[in-house]
Amino acid sequence: MTDAAELERRTAQLLAEHPPADTDPADFLKARFDAGLAWVHYPEGLGGLGAPRSLQAAVDAGLVAAGAPDNDPRRIGIGLGMAAPTILRYGTEEQKRRFLRPLWVGEEVWCQLFSEPGAGSDLAALGTRAVREAGGDWIVNGQKVWTSSAHVARWAILIARTDPDLPKHAGITYFVCDMTDPGVEVRPLRQITGEAEFNEVFLTDVRIPDAHRLGDVGDGWRVAQTTLMNERVSIGGMRLPREGGMIGPVSKTWRERPELRTHDLHQRLLKLWVEAEAARLTGERLRQQLVAGQPGYEGSGMKLAFARLNQEISGLEVELRGEEGLLYDDWTMRRPELVDFTGRDAGYRYLRSKGNSIEGGTSEVLLNIVAERVLGLPSEPRTDKDVAWKDLAR
Length: 394
What we know:
With 394 residues, the chain is α+β, with helices and mostly antiparallel strands. The chain is built from eleven helices and eight strands. The strands form two sheets. Strands 1-4-5-8 form a four-stranded mixed β-sheet. Strand 6 (184-189) and strand 7 (198-208) form a beta hairpin. Helix 4 runs antiparallel to helix 5, helix 7 packs parallel to helix 9 (298-321) and helix 8 runs antiparallel to helix 9 (298-321). It starts with a helix and ends in a 20-residue tail after the last helix. The mean pLDDT is 91.
Protein backbone atom coordinates (compact mmCIF):
# COMPACT_ATOMS: atom_id res chain seq x y z
CA MET A 1 0.00 0.00 0.00
CA THR A 2 1.44 3.35 -1.06
CA ASP A 3 1.46 5.74 1.91
CA ALA A 4 1.57 9.53 2.25
CA ALA A 5 5.36 9.64 2.48
CA GLU A 6 5.74 7.73 -0.79
CA LEU A 7 3.27 10.01 -2.52
CA GLU A 8 5.14 13.05 -1.24
CA ARG A 9 8.38 11.60 -2.61
CA ARG A 10 6.84 10.86 -5.99
CA THR A 11 5.32 14.33 -6.17
CA ALA A 12 8.69 15.94 -5.44
CA GLN A 13 10.33 13.73 -8.07
CA LEU A 14 7.73 14.69 -10.67
CA LEU A 15 8.28 18.38 -10.00
CA ALA A 16 12.05 17.99 -10.15
CA GLU A 17 12.02 16.09 -13.42
CA HIS A 18 9.30 18.23 -15.03
CA PRO A 19 9.47 21.77 -13.59
CA PRO A 20 6.06 23.35 -14.29
CA ALA A 21 7.59 26.66 -15.38
CA ASP A 22 9.71 24.95 -18.05
CA THR A 23 7.43 22.09 -19.15
CA ASP A 24 4.64 22.13 -21.69
CA PRO A 25 1.36 21.70 -19.73
CA ALA A 26 0.31 18.68 -21.80
CA ASP A 27 3.67 17.00 -21.26
CA PHE A 28 3.46 17.67 -17.52
CA LEU A 29 0.00 16.12 -17.31
CA LYS A 30 1.16 13.03 -19.20
CA ALA A 31 4.12 12.68 -16.86
CA ARG A 32 1.83 13.08 -13.86
CA PHE A 33 -0.46 10.34 -15.14
CA ASP A 34 2.47 8.01 -15.78
CA ALA A 35 3.80 8.69 -12.26
CA GLY A 36 0.51 7.46 -10.79
CA LEU A 37 -0.46 10.87 -9.43
CA ALA A 38 -3.50 11.52 -11.61
CA TRP A 39 -5.98 9.64 -9.40
CA VAL A 40 -3.90 7.84 -6.80
CA HIS A 41 -6.60 5.27 -5.93
CA TYR A 42 -6.61 3.85 -9.48
CA PRO A 43 -4.37 0.84 -10.24
CA GLU A 44 -0.74 1.21 -11.23
CA GLY A 45 -0.31 1.88 -14.93
CA LEU A 46 -3.74 3.54 -15.13
CA GLY A 47 -2.86 6.87 -13.55
CA GLY A 48 -2.76 5.62 -9.97
CA LEU A 49 -0.83 3.65 -7.40
CA GLY A 50 -3.55 1.73 -5.61
CA ALA A 51 -3.32 4.24 -2.73
CA PRO A 52 -6.19 5.41 -0.53
CA ARG A 53 -8.38 7.95 -2.29
CA SER A 54 -8.08 10.26 0.71
CA LEU A 55 -4.43 10.94 -0.15
CA GLN A 56 -5.32 12.58 -3.47
CA ALA A 57 -6.05 15.94 -1.84
CA ALA A 58 -2.49 16.23 -0.48
CA VAL A 59 -1.02 15.44 -3.90
CA ASP A 60 -3.26 18.03 -5.57
CA ALA A 61 -2.42 20.68 -2.99
CA GLY A 62 1.31 20.12 -3.42
CA LEU A 63 1.11 20.42 -7.18
CA VAL A 64 -1.05 23.55 -7.03
CA ALA A 65 1.43 25.16 -4.64
CA ALA A 66 4.21 24.44 -7.13
CA GLY A 67 2.29 26.09 -9.97
CA ALA A 68 1.61 22.85 -11.83
CA PRO A 69 -1.11 22.92 -14.52
CA ASP A 70 -4.38 21.08 -14.04
CA ASN A 71 -6.36 19.21 -16.67
CA ASP A 72 -9.23 21.75 -16.76
CA PRO A 73 -11.70 19.41 -15.06
CA ARG A 74 -14.74 21.53 -15.91
CA ARG A 75 -14.08 20.99 -19.62
CA ILE A 76 -13.66 17.22 -19.29
CA GLY A 77 -16.03 16.63 -16.39
CA ILE A 78 -18.12 13.96 -18.15
CA GLY A 79 -15.01 11.95 -18.90
CA LEU A 80 -13.57 12.30 -15.41
CA GLY A 81 -16.76 11.91 -13.41
CA MET A 82 -18.73 9.41 -15.49
CA ALA A 83 -16.81 7.62 -18.23
CA ALA A 84 -13.62 6.92 -16.28
CA PRO A 85 -15.14 5.14 -13.25
CA THR A 86 -17.36 3.09 -15.57
CA ILE A 87 -14.43 2.06 -17.77
CA LEU A 88 -12.39 1.23 -14.69
CA ARG A 89 -15.09 -1.05 -13.31
CA TYR A 90 -16.35 -2.74 -16.48
CA GLY A 91 -13.73 -2.16 -19.16
CA THR A 92 -11.25 -4.69 -20.45
CA GLU A 93 -7.56 -4.09 -19.78
CA GLU A 94 -7.18 -2.99 -23.38
CA GLN A 95 -10.03 -0.50 -23.03
CA LYS A 96 -8.62 0.91 -19.81
CA ARG A 97 -5.20 1.48 -21.33
CA ARG A 98 -6.63 2.95 -24.53
CA PHE A 99 -9.08 5.42 -23.00
CA LEU A 100 -8.06 6.49 -19.47
CA ARG A 101 -4.80 8.35 -20.17
CA PRO A 102 -6.02 10.67 -22.97
CA LEU A 103 -9.26 11.14 -21.02
CA TRP A 104 -7.50 12.34 -17.88
CA VAL A 105 -4.91 14.43 -19.71
CA GLY A 106 -7.73 16.17 -21.58
CA GLU A 107 -6.68 15.15 -25.06
CA GLU A 108 -10.08 13.54 -25.67
CA VAL A 109 -13.38 15.02 -24.50
CA TRP A 110 -16.30 12.70 -23.69
CA CYS A 111 -20.06 13.09 -23.80
CA GLN A 112 -23.01 10.97 -22.65
CA LEU A 113 -25.54 9.46 -25.08
CA PHE A 114 -28.25 8.31 -22.65
CA SER A 115 -31.43 10.45 -22.74
CA GLU A 116 -33.82 10.32 -25.69
CA PRO A 117 -36.90 12.35 -26.70
CA GLY A 118 -39.09 9.48 -25.49
CA ALA A 119 -36.84 8.27 -22.68
CA GLY A 120 -35.70 11.08 -20.44
CA SER A 121 -37.05 10.59 -16.93
CA ASP A 122 -37.80 6.95 -17.84
CA LEU A 123 -34.36 6.22 -19.23
CA ALA A 124 -34.92 2.45 -19.38
CA ALA A 125 -37.59 3.01 -22.05
CA LEU A 126 -34.91 4.07 -24.55
CA GLY A 127 -35.45 3.03 -28.16
CA THR A 128 -32.07 3.52 -29.85
CA ARG A 129 -31.32 0.13 -31.41
CA ALA A 130 -28.03 -1.71 -31.74
CA VAL A 131 -28.13 -4.76 -34.01
CA ARG A 132 -25.18 -7.11 -34.20
CA GLU A 133 -23.86 -8.14 -37.59
CA ALA A 134 -22.45 -11.53 -38.42
CA GLY A 135 -18.93 -10.13 -38.24
CA GLY A 136 -19.41 -8.97 -34.66
CA ASP A 137 -19.83 -5.21 -35.17
CA TRP A 138 -22.95 -3.41 -33.98
CA ILE A 139 -25.05 -1.12 -36.17
CA VAL A 140 -26.72 1.65 -34.15
CA ASN A 141 -29.72 3.78 -35.13
CA GLY A 142 -31.57 6.29 -32.98
CA GLN A 143 -31.64 9.74 -31.46
CA LYS A 144 -30.21 11.12 -28.21
CA VAL A 145 -30.92 14.47 -26.63
CA TRP A 146 -29.61 16.93 -23.99
CA THR A 147 -26.06 15.84 -24.80
CA SER A 148 -23.62 18.25 -23.17
CA SER A 149 -20.35 18.81 -25.06
CA ALA A 150 -21.30 16.57 -27.99
CA HIS A 151 -20.05 19.26 -30.37
CA VAL A 152 -16.50 18.98 -28.99
CA ALA A 153 -16.48 15.32 -27.91
CA ARG A 154 -14.23 12.65 -29.37
CA TRP A 155 -15.94 9.76 -27.57
CA ALA A 156 -19.34 9.05 -26.04
CA ILE A 157 -20.70 6.58 -23.53
CA LEU A 158 -23.83 5.13 -25.15
CA ILE A 159 -26.60 2.77 -24.10
CA ALA A 160 -28.77 1.14 -26.74
CA ARG A 161 -31.42 -1.56 -26.92
CA THR A 162 -30.05 -4.86 -28.18
CA ASP A 163 -33.04 -7.13 -27.40
CA PRO A 164 -36.55 -5.64 -27.70
CA ASP A 165 -38.13 -8.96 -26.63
CA LEU A 166 -36.94 -8.48 -23.04
CA PRO A 167 -38.38 -6.10 -20.41
CA LYS A 168 -37.16 -2.54 -20.70
CA HIS A 169 -34.46 -2.76 -18.01
CA ALA A 170 -33.04 -5.85 -19.69
CA GLY A 171 -31.90 -6.07 -23.26
CA ILE A 172 -29.81 -2.87 -23.00
CA THR A 173 -26.10 -2.88 -23.80
CA TYR A 174 -23.45 -0.26 -23.04
CA PHE A 175 -20.98 0.95 -25.69
CA VAL A 176 -18.25 3.47 -26.36
CA CYS A 177 -19.13 5.43 -29.50
CA ASP A 178 -16.66 7.29 -31.70
CA MET A 179 -18.24 10.70 -32.28
CA THR A 180 -16.21 11.19 -35.48
CA ASP A 181 -17.65 8.09 -37.17
CA PRO A 182 -19.89 8.38 -40.24
CA GLY A 183 -23.56 8.53 -39.29
CA VAL A 184 -23.06 10.60 -36.13
CA GLU A 185 -24.75 13.99 -36.55
CA VAL A 186 -24.68 16.62 -33.79
CA ARG A 187 -27.21 19.47 -33.82
CA PRO A 188 -27.24 22.34 -31.31
CA LEU A 189 -30.11 22.87 -28.86
CA ARG A 190 -30.36 26.58 -28.10
CA GLN A 191 -31.22 27.14 -24.46
CA ILE A 192 -32.89 29.93 -22.51
CA THR A 193 -29.42 31.50 -22.03
CA GLY A 194 -29.10 31.90 -25.81
CA GLU A 195 -26.24 29.41 -25.86
CA ALA A 196 -26.16 25.78 -26.95
CA GLU A 197 -23.92 23.67 -24.76
CA PHE A 198 -26.62 20.98 -25.09
CA ASN A 199 -27.11 19.08 -28.32
CA GLU A 200 -29.24 16.42 -29.93
CA VAL A 201 -27.38 13.57 -31.61
CA PHE A 202 -28.69 11.50 -34.49
CA LEU A 203 -27.19 8.06 -35.07
CA THR A 204 -27.70 6.60 -38.53
CA ASP A 205 -26.15 3.19 -39.25
CA VAL A 206 -23.25 3.95 -36.93
CA ARG A 207 -20.86 1.01 -36.80
CA ILE A 208 -19.46 0.21 -33.34
CA PRO A 209 -16.97 -2.65 -32.99
CA ASP A 210 -17.73 -5.21 -30.30
CA ALA A 211 -14.36 -4.31 -28.78
CA HIS A 212 -16.02 -1.01 -27.75
CA ARG A 213 -18.70 -2.73 -25.69
CA LEU A 214 -18.52 -2.21 -21.90
CA GLY A 215 -19.83 -5.14 -19.87
CA ASP A 216 -21.83 -8.09 -21.13
CA VAL A 217 -24.44 -7.98 -23.85
CA GLY A 218 -27.78 -7.17 -22.21
CA ASP A 219 -26.16 -5.95 -18.99
CA GLY A 220 -26.13 -2.29 -19.97
CA TRP A 221 -28.60 -1.13 -17.34
CA ARG A 222 -26.36 -2.36 -14.52
CA VAL A 223 -23.32 -0.75 -16.14
CA ALA A 224 -25.28 2.49 -16.59
CA GLN A 225 -26.07 2.61 -12.86
CA THR A 226 -22.36 3.04 -12.15
CA THR A 227 -22.29 5.97 -14.56
CA LEU A 228 -25.42 7.57 -13.14
CA MET A 229 -24.37 7.29 -9.50
CA ASN A 230 -20.97 8.79 -10.30
CA GLU A 231 -22.65 11.53 -12.35
CA ARG A 232 -24.80 12.63 -9.42
CA VAL A 233 -21.86 12.63 -7.05
CA SER A 234 -19.78 14.68 -9.51
CA ILE A 235 -22.61 17.22 -10.01
CA GLY A 236 -23.92 17.50 -6.47
CA GLY A 237 -20.76 16.71 -4.53
CA MET A 238 -18.21 19.03 -6.11
CA ARG A 239 -15.40 20.06 -3.76
CA LEU A 240 -15.89 23.74 -2.91
CA PRO A 241 -14.35 26.17 -0.44
CA ARG A 242 -16.60 28.01 1.99
CA GLU A 243 -18.80 30.40 -0.03
CA GLY A 244 -17.84 28.53 -3.16
CA GLY A 245 -20.35 28.08 -5.95
CA MET A 246 -23.51 30.15 -6.35
CA ILE A 247 -23.59 31.50 -2.79
CA GLY A 248 -20.30 33.33 -3.35
CA PRO A 249 -21.40 36.06 -5.80
CA VAL A 250 -24.57 36.96 -3.89
CA SER A 251 -22.66 37.12 -0.59
CA LYS A 252 -20.07 39.38 -2.22
CA THR A 253 -22.79 41.69 -3.55
CA TRP A 254 -24.43 41.85 -0.11
CA ARG A 255 -21.17 42.95 1.54
CA GLU A 256 -20.21 45.46 -1.15
CA ARG A 257 -23.65 47.03 -1.83
CA PRO A 258 -25.27 47.98 1.50
CA GLU A 259 -27.79 50.20 -0.30
CA LEU A 260 -29.44 47.05 -1.72
CA ARG A 261 -30.09 45.42 1.63
CA THR A 262 -33.48 44.84 3.21
CA HIS A 263 -34.47 42.90 6.31
CA ASP A 264 -36.36 40.29 4.28
CA LEU A 265 -33.47 39.74 1.88
CA HIS A 266 -31.12 39.45 4.84
CA GLN A 267 -33.18 36.67 6.41
CA ARG A 268 -33.40 34.78 3.13
CA LEU A 269 -29.67 35.13 2.48
CA LEU A 270 -28.81 33.84 5.97
CA LYS A 271 -31.05 30.81 5.47
CA LEU A 272 -29.56 29.98 2.06
CA TRP A 273 -25.99 30.58 3.25
CA VAL A 274 -26.46 28.05 6.06
CA GLU A 275 -28.07 25.55 3.69
CA ALA A 276 -25.26 25.98 1.15
CA GLU A 277 -22.65 25.42 3.85
CA ALA A 278 -24.49 22.34 5.14
CA ALA A 279 -24.65 20.97 1.58
CA ARG A 280 -20.95 21.65 1.10
CA LEU A 281 -20.01 19.79 4.27
CA THR A 282 -22.36 16.93 3.41
CA GLY A 283 -20.62 16.66 0.05
CA GLU A 284 -17.27 16.48 1.81
CA ARG A 285 -18.57 13.66 4.01
CA LEU A 286 -19.90 11.86 0.94
CA ARG A 287 -16.48 12.06 -0.71
CA GLN A 288 -14.90 10.60 2.41
CA GLN A 289 -17.36 7.71 2.27
CA LEU A 290 -16.27 7.05 -1.31
CA VAL A 291 -12.82 6.17 -0.02
CA ALA A 292 -14.23 2.87 1.18
CA GLY A 293 -15.97 1.85 -2.05
CA GLN A 294 -18.37 2.72 -4.84
CA PRO A 295 -20.70 5.73 -4.69
CA GLY A 296 -24.12 5.05 -3.25
CA TYR A 297 -27.54 6.50 -3.86
CA GLU A 298 -26.79 9.32 -1.41
CA GLY A 299 -25.36 11.19 -4.39
CA SER A 300 -28.94 11.55 -5.65
CA GLY A 301 -29.78 13.50 -2.52
CA MET A 302 -26.79 15.76 -3.01
CA LYS A 303 -27.76 16.43 -6.61
CA LEU A 304 -31.29 17.30 -5.46
CA ALA A 305 -29.95 19.82 -2.98
CA PHE A 306 -27.57 21.26 -5.58
CA ALA A 307 -30.39 21.99 -8.03
CA ARG A 308 -32.76 23.51 -5.46
CA LEU A 309 -30.09 25.69 -3.86
CA ASN A 310 -28.76 26.98 -7.17
CA GLN A 311 -32.22 28.04 -8.27
CA GLU A 312 -33.16 29.67 -4.97
CA ILE A 313 -29.81 31.45 -4.58
CA SER A 314 -29.80 32.78 -8.13
CA GLY A 315 -33.38 33.99 -7.70
CA LEU A 316 -32.38 35.84 -4.52
CA GLU A 317 -29.42 37.42 -6.31
CA VAL A 318 -31.65 38.77 -9.08
CA GLU A 319 -34.01 40.27 -6.48
CA LEU A 320 -31.13 41.76 -4.50
CA ARG A 321 -29.74 43.52 -7.57
CA GLY A 322 -33.14 44.93 -8.54
CA GLU A 323 -33.20 46.33 -12.05
CA GLU A 324 -29.55 45.35 -12.53
CA GLY A 325 -30.54 41.74 -11.98
CA LEU A 326 -32.71 41.78 -15.09
CA LEU A 327 -29.77 42.62 -17.34
CA TYR A 328 -28.13 39.91 -19.42
CA ASP A 329 -24.74 40.30 -21.01
CA ASP A 330 -25.00 38.56 -24.37
CA TRP A 331 -27.71 36.65 -26.22
CA THR A 332 -25.37 35.67 -29.05
CA MET A 333 -25.77 32.07 -30.15
CA ARG A 334 -22.63 30.27 -28.96
CA ARG A 335 -21.61 26.68 -28.37
CA PRO A 336 -19.44 26.84 -25.24
CA GLU A 337 -17.21 24.04 -24.07
CA LEU A 338 -18.23 24.37 -20.41
CA VAL A 339 -20.72 25.95 -18.02
CA ASP A 340 -19.31 28.87 -16.03
CA PHE A 341 -21.73 29.79 -13.24
CA THR A 342 -19.48 32.10 -11.26
CA GLY A 343 -17.70 33.79 -14.15
CA ARG A 344 -20.86 35.26 -15.66
CA ASP A 345 -23.47 37.77 -14.51
CA ALA A 346 -26.51 37.29 -12.28
CA GLY A 347 -28.90 36.99 -15.22
CA TYR A 348 -26.93 34.07 -16.66
CA ARG A 349 -26.85 32.28 -13.32
CA TYR A 350 -30.59 32.69 -12.89
CA LEU A 351 -31.43 31.38 -16.36
CA ARG A 352 -28.88 28.57 -16.50
CA SER A 353 -29.75 27.19 -13.07
CA LYS A 354 -33.20 26.26 -14.39
CA GLY A 355 -31.54 23.33 -16.11
CA ASN A 356 -30.06 22.00 -12.86
CA SER A 357 -33.30 20.25 -11.93
CA ILE A 358 -33.33 18.43 -15.28
CA GLU A 359 -29.72 17.49 -16.10
CA GLY A 360 -28.16 14.56 -14.32
CA GLY A 361 -31.57 13.12 -13.47
CA THR A 362 -34.72 15.15 -12.95
CA SER A 363 -35.52 16.19 -9.41
CA GLU A 364 -38.77 14.21 -9.54
CA VAL A 365 -36.95 10.98 -10.42
CA LEU A 366 -34.25 11.62 -7.82
CA LEU A 367 -36.91 12.08 -5.14
CA ASN A 368 -38.14 8.58 -5.94
CA ILE A 369 -34.60 7.20 -5.80
CA VAL A 370 -33.93 8.78 -2.42
CA ALA A 371 -37.27 7.55 -1.09
CA GLU A 372 -36.81 3.97 -2.25
CA ARG A 373 -33.04 3.39 -2.19
CA VAL A 374 -31.93 5.60 0.70
CA LEU A 375 -34.97 5.79 3.01
CA GLY A 376 -36.26 2.29 2.18
CA LEU A 377 -39.84 3.42 1.49
CA PRO A 378 -42.12 1.18 -0.59
CA SER A 379 -41.60 1.55 -4.32
CA GLU A 380 -44.30 2.88 -6.60
CA PRO A 381 -46.38 0.23 -8.46
CA ARG A 382 -44.86 -0.56 -11.86
CA THR A 383 -47.10 -2.37 -14.29
CA ASP A 384 -44.50 -2.49 -17.08
CA LYS A 385 -41.69 -4.13 -15.14
CA ASP A 386 -42.05 -7.60 -16.68
CA VAL A 387 -43.46 -6.60 -20.07
CA ALA A 388 -41.29 -6.96 -23.16
CA TRP A 389 -40.07 -3.57 -24.37
CA LYS A 390 -41.60 -4.10 -27.82
CA ASP A 391 -45.04 -4.52 -26.21
CA LEU A 392 -44.97 -1.32 -24.17
CA ALA A 393 -47.41 1.46 -25.06
CA ARG A 394 -45.59 4.37 -26.65
